[in-house]
């Protein structure tokens, strides 16, 4: 099966995901969910977001903590573009199994929604297992999604890709591009991992998404030399793969 979800970690989950039935015939398997989420920004359908995420949950895509980042990044992006729907989405997604509810919590937290704190306080009553997590978030400052540091791990890249798939915005892609020089770091394995993942995911998504390729080419003119040099290589490699009909 061709991998369509932005997360380099989630691809492995999709390959192992078994089809599941859906009453209305939508999102009936992993590929249907991933296809819809990956290209959501092309034709946004916010009224279907809750159903898509509930389907992702039913297929087991949210149960591993390493897999949640693209989904809460996606939900945060949807909420940022549709603030009038945040409360409705939140109520619909409280039916997620307890193990998957962090996607909702973090989606709200990183959405930039002005009333995120009172909403999370309200939701803590219906998600008692996560009250400690919610209380921790409420007690600390809320960083902007685009300001989360890459030192926290490669999951930040997955979150940013999920956010891009929801919004089509330049900002999350530009943020990922800024991590490219880390691919050349040799004395810090964690940075090398993040930089290599940024490089791989940019090539993969530039091949699949004209929007990502356009943003990458535009960023060549504004990024510092150390970033632009690696970005130029990424673009060239993606273009070569496209000419040869290769995908990643």
Structure at a glance:
The longest helix has 20 residues, at about 190-210.
Q: How is the secondary structure organized here?
A:
Blueprint: H1 10-15, H2 30-38, H3 49-58, H4 69-81, H5 86-93, H6 102-109, H7 116-124, H8 131-139, H9 155-167, H10 170-177, H11 189-208, H12 210-219, H13 225-243
Helix pairs in contact: 2-3, 4-6, 4-9, 7-8, 9-10, 10-12, 11-12, 11-13, 12-13
Shape verdict = globular
Low-confidence stretches: 1-16, 18-25
Q: Please indicate the percent range of residues in DSSP E strands (runs of 2 or more).
A: under 5%
User: Could you give the distance between the termini?
Assistant: 12 Å
Major sheet size, sense and barrel closure: none
Helix content bin: 55-70%
- Structural Rg: 18 Å
Q: How would you state the average pLDDT, rounded?
A: 88
Regarding quaternary structure, what we see is: single chain
Structural class: mainly alpha
Q: What is the number of beta strands? A: 0
Helix count, per DSSP? 13
Query: What's the domain count?
Result: 2
Give, in order, the helices and strands. Answer: HHHHHHHHHHHHH
Characterization of the model:
By secondary structure, the chain is mostly helical. It folds into 2 domains: 138 residues, no CATH class; 74 residues, no CATH class. The chain is built from 13 helices and no strands. Helix 2 packs antiparallel against helix 3, helix 7 packs antiparallel against helix 8 and helix 11 crosses helix 13. The longest helix is centred in the C-terminal third of the chain and has 20 residues. The N terminus is likely disordered.
Characteristics:
13 helices, 0% strand, disordered N terminus, mainly alpha, 248 residues, 2 domains
